[in-house]
Each structure stands twice: as C-alpha cells, then as structure tokens.
Design goal:
Layout: H1 2-14, H2 21-31, H3 39-48, H4 55-67, E1 71-75, E2 81-85, E3 93-97, E4 103-106, H5 109-121, E5 132-135, H6 138-142
Parallel strand pairs: 3-5
Antiparallel strand pairs: 1-2, 3-4
Helix pairs in contact: 2-3, 2-4, 3-4
Organism: Oleidesulfovibrio alaskensis (strain ATCC BAA-1058 / DSM 17464 / G20)
Protein name: Ferric uptake regulation protein
InterPro entries: FUR, Fur_C, WH-like_DNA-bd_sf, WH_DNA-bd_sf
Length: about 140
C-alpha cells in the first residue's frame, strides 16, 4: 500500500495540491477494502473509524485517485457509482446487479483468449480492456 500512497502523493504534488490527512485517510480506506464501494459507503466507513470527512472531500479524492490511475469507477445500476482500487496486473471483469449494485469479480481464461483472438482477427493491438456485465442477481430475483 505504501507504493500506491507514494504514487498518489507524487500525483498530488504534480497538481500543486497539498497532501492532507483527509487524502491519506481516503486512500487508506479504499486500499484496505476489497469491496467495490460508493462514495457514501466509504465516507460511512471513515466516520465509523472516527474520521469526520465530508462527502464532497471523499468524492474529490476518489476522483483524483481515478485520475491518477490508482482507482477505477463504474456504474453499478441506477445513478450509483462504485469505486475499486486499481492494482497493476490484477485484471478481472465484473458481473453487476442493476438493482442492488452487488458486484462479482471474475476472470475466465476462455473469455480472455476469445478477446485476444478477436483482436488478432481484426488486426487490433490490445492495450487493455474492462468488461462489465449487467443483470439481476439471484438475491434480487428471489425477492421479487
């Protein structure tokens, strides 16, 4: 985690912004969760730890983490945006419930091979990809 905190500190310095305890707390909170969180969920976690950081501050810092390439954001149904930490070489895809936002990470080698084959077939050099598959999870279907 120190490596990523340092990278974020460098990014903040390049932007001629100040490194603050609030920024450090947001980075730490995001990097110590394995879940995909909304801005509100992350702010609630910080509050539960006794860190009173405003929602706007949490949002701004999550956006900065995305801009720095250290976090990813994605829409999980409705207006909800979720964030996850981004670690190089930790590729995975997502199944996202459009009702509750539940997100399942998966990696399928057959799917990866198919994507590479499609790129070759179209003479396209892949530099990366993101896949988000949307639907309704079993829990939400059962409660309908």
């Amino acid at each position: 985690m120190q490596h990523y905190t340092r990278r974020f500190q460098d990014f903040i310095a390049e932007k001629r912004m100040k490194w603050t305890q609030q920024r450090e707390a947001v980075v730490h909170a995001l990097w110590t969760t394995e879940e995909h969180v909304t801005c509100e969920e992350l702010a609630a976690r910080l509050a539960a730890q006794g860190r009173r950081i405003g929602l706007a501050t949490v949002y701004r810092n999550l956006r900065l983490l995305v801009d720095a390439g250290l976090a990813r954001e994605f829409h999980s149904g409705g207006a909800s945006v979720r964030y996850e930490r981004y670690i190089e070489d930790d590729h995975h895809d997502h199944l996202i419930c459009e009702r509750c936002g539940n997100t399942v990470e998966f990696l399928d080698e057959k799917l990866e091979s198919l994507q590479e084959e499609l790129a070759r077939r179209h003479d396209f050099r892949l530099t990366g990809h993101k896949m988000y598959l949307y639907g309704i999870c079993n829990r939400c279907r059962s409660s309908s």
